[in-house]
């Protein structure tokens, strides 16, 4: 008798994305981009460009307008140790963010395995994952490292008063202090130099006084995690003069951005950012009409 074809098994469509993790080897160091999701917000927070031009730049690049910004954190495996750069938004900013902990769980990484947390700065989309709602440290074994100027700023009542008077970011100070509180006995402020095996702190002031990038070097390879040098790539790469409303020193932030753009373009330096689109790794090139950001091609193997 002829064989009857078997009925194909049913397969349900996926209900969720795969974990947002991407590994990149830098010599003997493995860097993992860990997405914390994204934040939606008003274009009005961008300064020094007409709002119509900002909208045109975003829609011309097939991006949402008002803006949508990626939020990334980075896990570092080096010399048998584990560090995390930034902790994302935590659970209370937007439902689209705060995904870092789910992605770390998908990686199989217990939070107790992280021995060092390093912050680019203390804005809530970078530090709200340090402590839970009860004020307990979410990284029970981690030392907390940040630039000494950053620590001083968020502990300065005069700075808090200046921000209060400006009408911007008033809750940020209380939130930053609450997030740091459970790490008070394991804070490690630094000025620069090596802060983790193969990882050097690079002071990039302007966005905040202690805003810091991290250069990762091993063998003849390197990566600069440049923090918040840009928030909206489609706008700030062609227009480095475009600042953010919550830049502490906008003029210095723009100056730092231009300096870093020039350096990474001249050196052909691989970069990654907290707000470059996931998986975050890219190169910046100088062109006749300014700069262009080229996302690095996906690598299937380490």
Automatic annotation (TrEMBL):
InterPro entries: MBL_superfamily_lactonases, Metallo-B-lactamas, RibonucZ/Hydroxyglut_hydro. Residues 70-275 form the Metallo-beta-lactamase domain. It comes from Teichococcus coralli. This is MBL fold metallo-hydrolase. Keywords: Hydrolase, Metal-binding, Zinc. PANTHER family: QUORUM-QUENCHING LACTONASE YTNP-RELATED, QUORUM-QUENCHING LACTONASE YTNP-RELATED-RELATED. The keyword Flavoprotein does not apply. Gene3D superfamilies: Ribonuclease Z/Hydroxyacylglutathione hydrolase-like (3.60.15.10). It comes from the Bacteria.
């Amino acid at each position: 008798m002829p064989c009857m074809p078997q009925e194909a098994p049913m397969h349900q469509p996926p209900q969720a994305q795969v974990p947002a993790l991407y590994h990149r080897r830098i010599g003997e160091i493995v860097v993992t981009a860990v997405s914390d999701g994204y934040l939606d917000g008003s274009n009005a927070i961008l300064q020094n460009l007409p709002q119509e031009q900002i909208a045109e730049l975003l829609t011309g690049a097939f991006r949402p307008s008002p803006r949508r910004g990626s939020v990334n954190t980075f896990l570092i495996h080096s010399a048998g140790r584990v560090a995390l750069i930034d902790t994302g938004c935590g659970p209370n900013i937007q439902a689209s963010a705060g995904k870092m902990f789910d992605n770390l769980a998908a990686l199989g990484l217990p939070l107790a395995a992280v021995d060092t947390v390093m912050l680019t700065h203390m804005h809530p989309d970078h530090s709200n994952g340090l402590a839970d709602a009860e004020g307990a440290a979410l990284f029970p074994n981690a030392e907390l490292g940040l630039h000494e100027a950053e620590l001083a700023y968020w502990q300065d009542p005069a700075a808090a008063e200046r921000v209060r008077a400006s009408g911007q970011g008033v809750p940020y100070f209380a939130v930053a202090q609450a997030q740091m509180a459970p790490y008070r006995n394991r804070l490690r402020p630094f000025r620069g130099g090596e802060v983790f095996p193969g990882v050097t702190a690079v002071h990039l002031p302007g966005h905040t006084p202690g805003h810091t990038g991290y250069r990762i070097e091993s063998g003849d390879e390197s990566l600069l995690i440049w923090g918040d040098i840009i928030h909206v790539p489609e706008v700030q790469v062609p227009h480095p003069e475009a600042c953010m409303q919550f830049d502490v020193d906008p003029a210095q932030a723009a100056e730092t951005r231009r300096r870093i753009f020039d350096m990474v373009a001249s050196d052909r330096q691989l970069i990654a950012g907290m707000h470059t689109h996931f998986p975050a790794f890219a190169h910046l090139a100088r062109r006749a009409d300014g700069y262009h950001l080229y996302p690095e091609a996906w690598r299937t193997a380490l």
